[in-house]
């Protein structure tokens, strides 16, 4: 009995997701900031790591384990595969088009884009807590055409990437991905090799930004699970809301709000602010509204207001907006069934990992984001100006995200009344919230009055 236990323990410990060393893993460094009202921001040194699925997975002699799906000679079963195959370091710039510079991260599409995660200085994913906070970044989408998507979002992934006796790679090698689509294509799931693609990896997902230069979408995707949840077969259905309750200005009736030369001009860099407001103005509260602002050329631009008959004239995501959208536009009820904004908020309160990716869908086009998704005679089916004629392959597609910052409401892009808005050594927003303006006091201090 004991020896059976001991040998099965040995066997299970040997089933490890190995680390390969053909290319040394050097995470591209990037800075990000945390900010507080009144006193400005603190800079942190982090880095990015490439998702495990994008990495070269190979045997000790350098044979690829998954040339087109898993090679069943090398990987007849999950245990053998885990013992035999290793995740290698990444040539970030050369192979994946991933480069950083200070606070900026650029993704060049090249051969197929990339998906990266933000790491802290201990090689764990930064675990963001954004309830009653705002999350802000600058983005240059000018070079992202129809059918491409430069995305920045939160997933409730394990902050250590699920590192364990059976996963030696962990967050440093980009393991532990999950999202609200419960993807079944993840090669390693919780230390098990997903050779048959039967395992799905589900978790709550908050899409702050899915966009190209033609359309943009902000989308909470709640799930009925806590953390990363591994599902199998039919057990994967109905755990999450894969469509989400999105806000897309174009779809919501304002076709001239976001795009080249529009009010939010996608030919220029813009700042994107997303606020997670709660019912009691505390991090402990229930998520009640997800609010968006843009800042461009020193001007704060509130999100567009919904202009579709039957829908509330709001410019943020609230429970009423989501429920009315289901009723009026016939959107999926999955959002409410999976707990809606409240459930999304519970996930965000537990913490979220930052995911940044650049991907394409040249097959059908990315119509859910930028084109016609449904019957053109029905309201709310046109989500952007792109048509099949606009879908062309462009490996030179690129996106740059920079100045990632998180903090108290209004602390990352404009200051509150009496807050500091300038001065030598000050590192924080220089705009003041309406109706205040920045008043010079002395060379070390300006204040919103
Ligand atoms: C799978 O691996 C075996 C054993 O190394 C090899 O002979 C075969 O060519 C591989 N198949 C593919 C499609 O790479
Ligand atoms: C990095 O950014 C700095 C300042 O933002 C700029 O001067 C420099 O040219 C950039 N370097 C590269 C390689 O893009
Ligand atoms: C934005 O990206 C485009 C395309 O890559 C580039 O030409 C332009 O210089 C970038 N703008 C800024 C302000 O960095
Ligand atoms: C991962 O595997 C460990 C050990 O088998 C188990 O305790 C844990 O619950 C699993 N995690 C998930 C998310 O399934
Ligand atoms: C689009 O949004 C802008 C800015 O909020 C507003 O001025 C304009 O009237 C809106 N247009 C439509 C058609 O809703
Ligand atoms: C709402 O859209 C209609 C056209 O569908 C337009 O005539 C009207 O000006 C828009 N309202 C606002 C406030 O922009
Ligand atoms: C998901 O959670 C919601 C409330 O949080 C509940 O109403 C619903 O029945 C749950 N669905 C499943 C499939 O567990
Ligand atoms: C899409 O293609 C049509 C026809 O060539 C063109 O008129 C239009 O400007 C294109 N739109 C975009 C967003 O590229
Ligand atoms: C944040 O700024 C907005 C817009 O200027 C303002 O309506 C709101 O009251 C401010 N909230 C806080 C907490 O300062």
From TrEMBL:
CDD domains noted in UniProt: GH7_CBH_EG
GO CC entries: extracellular region
Domain CBM1: 413-449
Molecular function terms, GO-annotated: cellulase activity; cellulose binding
Signal sequence segment: 1-16
Reactions the enzyme catalyzes: Endohydrolysis of (1->4)-beta-D-glucosidic linkages in cellulose, lichenin and cereal beta-D-glucans
GO terms (BP aspect): cellulose catabolic process
Keywords for the protein's UniProt record, in alphabetical order: Carbohydrate metabolism, Cellulose degradation, Disulfide bond, Glycoprotein, Glycosidase, Hydrolase, Polysaccharide degradation, Signal
Pfam families per UniProt: CBM_1, Glyco_hydro_7
EC number(s) per entry: 3.2.1.-
SMART domains to which the protein is assigned, alphabetical: fCBD
Gene3D superfamilies the record matches: Glycoside hydrolase, family 7, domain
Family named by the database record: Belongs to the glycosyl hydrolase 7 (cellulase C) family.
Designated name of the protein: Glucanase
Organism: Mycena sanguinolenta
């Amino acid at each position: 009995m004991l020896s059976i236990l001991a040998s099965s323990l040995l066997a299970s410990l040997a089933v490890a997701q190995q680390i390969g060393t053909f290319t040394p893993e050097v995470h591209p460094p990037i800075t990000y900031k945390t900010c507080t009202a009144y006193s400005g921001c603190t800079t942190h040194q982090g880095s990015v790591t490439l998702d495990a699925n994008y990495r070269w997975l190979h045997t000790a002699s350098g044979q690829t384990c998954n040339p087109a799906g898993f090679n069943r000679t090398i990987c007849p079963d999950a245990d053998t595969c885990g013992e035999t195959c290793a995740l290698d370091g990444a040539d970030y710039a050369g192979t994946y088009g991933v480069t950083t510079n200070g606070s900026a991260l650029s993704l060049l599409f090249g051969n197929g884009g990339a998906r990266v995660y933000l790491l802290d200085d201990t090689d764990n994913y930064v675990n963001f807590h954004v309830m009653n906070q705002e999350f802000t970044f600058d983005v240059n989408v000018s070079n992202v055409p129809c059918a491409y998507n430069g995305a920045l979002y939160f997933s409730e992934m394990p902050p250590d990437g699920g590192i364990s006796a059976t996963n030696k790679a962990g967050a440093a090698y980009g393991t532990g991905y999950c999202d609200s689509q419960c993807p079944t294509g993840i090669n390693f799931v919780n230390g098990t090799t997903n050779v048959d693609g039967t395992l799905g990896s589900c978790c709550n997902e908050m899409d702050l930004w899915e966009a190209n230069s033609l359309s943009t979408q902000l989308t909470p995707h709640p799930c009925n699970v806590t953390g990363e949840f591994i599902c199998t077969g039919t057990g994967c259905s109905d755990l999450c809301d894969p469509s989400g309750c999105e806000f897309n200005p174009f779809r919501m009736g304002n076709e001239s709000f976001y795009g080249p030369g529009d009010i939010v001009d996608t030919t220029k860099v813009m700042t994107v602010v997303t606020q997670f407001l709660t019912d009691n103005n505390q991090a402990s509260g229930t998520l009640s509204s997800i609010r968006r602002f843009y800042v461009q050329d020193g001007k704060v631009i509130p999100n567009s207001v919904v202009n579709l008959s039957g829908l509330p004239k709001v410019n943020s995501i609230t429970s009423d907006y989501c429920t009315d959208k289901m009723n009026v536009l016939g959107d999926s009820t999955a959002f409410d069934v999976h707990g809606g904004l409240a459930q999304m908020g519970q996930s965000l309160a537990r913490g979220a990992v930052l995911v940044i990716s650049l991907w394409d869908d040249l097959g059908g086009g990315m119509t859910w984001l930028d084109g016609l998704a449904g019957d053109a005679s029905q309201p709310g089916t046109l989500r952007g100006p792109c048509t099949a004629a606009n879908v062309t392959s462009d490996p030179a597609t690129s996106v740059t995200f920079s100045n990632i910052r998180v903090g108290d409401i209004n602390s990352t892009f404009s200051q509150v009344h009496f807050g500091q808005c300038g001065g030598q050594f000050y590192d924080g927003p220089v705009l003041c919230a309406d109706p205040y303006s920045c008043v010079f006091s002395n060379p070390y201090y300006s204040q919103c009055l």
